[in-house]
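User: quick one, sequence for these tokens?
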């Protein structure tokens, strides 16, 4: 979210500096943000079983 807003801000500022009309394709921007959110949730869900296994008493080791 922060990266998307920062990118839109910097892109808008650069377009404004070169006196080009500032316009964003909102449906495409929101689609990419949604895809990124789905990817983050999928990776988080896929790593949870490994995290649970390693945090059990048998999975923790002391050196």
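Assistant:
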């Amino acid at each position: 979210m922060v990266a998307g807003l920062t990118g839109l801000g910097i892109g808008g500022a650069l377009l404004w500096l070169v006196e080009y009309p500032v316009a964003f394709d909102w449906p495409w921007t929101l689609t990419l943000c949604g895809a990124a959110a789905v990817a983050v949730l999928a990776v988080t869900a896929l790593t949870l079983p490994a995290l649970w296994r390693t945090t059990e008493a048998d999975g923790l080791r002391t050196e």
